[in-house]
Amino acid sequence: MVLAVHAGQSFPLGATVYPGGVNFSVFSKNCDAVELLFFDDVDAARPAHVIHLDPQKNRTFYYWHVFVRGISAGQLYGYRVHGPFAPERGMRFDGAKVLLDPYTRAVAIGKNYDREAARRHGDNAAYAMKSVVVDSRTYDWEGDWPLDHPYASTVIYEMHVGGFTKHPNSGVAPDKRGTYAGVVEKIPYLKSLGITAVELLPVQQFDPQDAFEGLDNYWGYSPVALFAPHQGYCGCSNPLDTVDAFRDMVKALHRADIEVILDVVFNHTAEGGDTGPTLSFRGLENRAYYILNEDKSCYANYSGTGNTLKADNSIVRRMIIDCLRYWVSEMHIDGFRFDLASVMSRGKRGQLLEDPPVLWEIESDPVLAGTKIIAEAWDAAGLYQVGTFTGHRWAEWNGQFRDDVRRFLRRDEGVVPQLAARIVGSADLYRKAEWEPSRSINFVTCHDGFTLNDLVSYNKKHNALNMENNADGISFNFSWNCGVEGPTDDPEINGLRLQQIKNFLTLLFISQGTPMLLMGDEVRRTQRGNNNAYCQDNEISWFDWDNMEDHGGVLRFVRQLIRYTQGMKVFQEEQFWSADEGHAGARLSWHGIHLGQPDWRAISHSLAFELQHRKLDEHLHVMLNAYWEPLTFELPPLFEGVQWYRLIDTALLTPDDFCLPNEASIVEESCYCVAAHSIVLLQALQVPNGR
Fold first, then answer.
1. What amino acid positions are annotated as catalytic residues?
2. pLDDT tens digit sequence for 388-432
3. What is the Cα–Cα distance from 218 to 210, expressed in whole angstroms?
């Protein structure tokens, strides 16, 4: 291969394909020299070509650049960056290491990839990941574009691309299990469930070896290339196919009217702490990319993973914005959930910023104007910003919803007032005038913690297989095993667990806010008590498709619940429910076992509420009993010709536990006996003639 080398230009960053060749540009401020390496094979021990960048011709300000004729999409490349290795000054240049381009659009990983080789002294070319030149202009989107569904009509399904179809019983062909193509095959299932958006655990290229020996980084919170889709979810040898396979999945989901939200990680990287590997950022410009301690040889660790990206640095801010724009404009992503988003509220020294520039830039960027932006509004160092996160447009994971619903259903004392606030969109937390209740992302389980089945089956975490002596994972889960730890043959306990699962699901979907369901909760997926399965790429974490039959009653309940709430305007209100007589939306009334007498005492374990939207002719009454004995609730009187119909009673078995209005039974009495540990939902409907 004959290459013609020219000066090139400093923009765009990364590798950009032009008709005559490819322009390369990378940032490095304090280095002495940069080499661009071309490889013919991902496992090659030596580059096929080495281009030494001239600091006079190939450098503009702090950007090193070159234009190379004779290459095109698919070319494997990397950088070697030479400079001082002076950790005490925050510099960790290592000219022996092959580095990924931070802006690479694809990554090639060979059979010999070895994370430890990037940690050890010496050349790691044979064992390094390689960047890949990508030409985004060649893909045919066939008119596809992001869907832009409103939050108020959104139901999110948090799922893992690999774990969704990796189980042998998934019905997916072996070569497609655990891949983007596997997700495409299961779109009919997602549609039948009724969800409107999938929130994918990290698909930015991550390091699967960032775990204890013998384990894999399954979740993917270990990024190495923020612009590149994870190669391991393609099942192909050509890294260009990974980019197209991801786009094929997005396009297919959009055709099914399902949005794609990415869980993105801009708080740390896979390079870890002081003794971590040199994969990319560390070897390019350590001081620019990471927050360092006063002792600059040590990394600040607000992420709990060993390092923290310096989001307040202009170079990192630009990379984050460029990355988000790329995923929206070139990959057609509908939204982002920002992992440990509060890290981006920290300044160059880790201090909390009053107005973090990167968060305002994300909010106000015109390319992202129609994109969902969802914050996990806390970090691993104790910063908790639920309800106070920066900006006007951000939605937030409502961790308080999760905790208060769990505490109420396990009969903790003094929780009823907090539960009431969660039901009505957490207006006590979100006090901004422009806030809409649907921007509270409500959930009772997520990837991080117990599954719903395990939440009602275990009091303690059981994480021994993670090889950390059960010290990892949160210890305060607000879970209740219903009397026995783990699986049991006791029919009473199993019946109670089933009721509690339906209680959690009911509260999730009838509360104001955007509901998020964890993959497999609808069929009682279990992780056998492991509440931190980040490293369990096996049947502990995978979706077990046999559960569709084994727990078909729960699956039916979830499908009916989503179908019903998605069809009711009262659950898609863009304003908080209110007890104000002049309120234009749904009018809310609180009750207890007696009408108009809610019991807010610490010893109370029950609550009822009534929703009436006269304009929409929607009138509901909901009764919650977390007590260990049945409670009889008075029912609000109705006009003549209108009766209460029982739609939900979680104490009943399928199919009586959920009946759509045309199948529901009339409640003839003026009161209703709500069984222990159960929830009942009634709807006021006209009695048809002859019934």
1. 339, 376
2. 999 999 999 999 999 999 999 999 999 999 999 999 999 999 988
3. 9
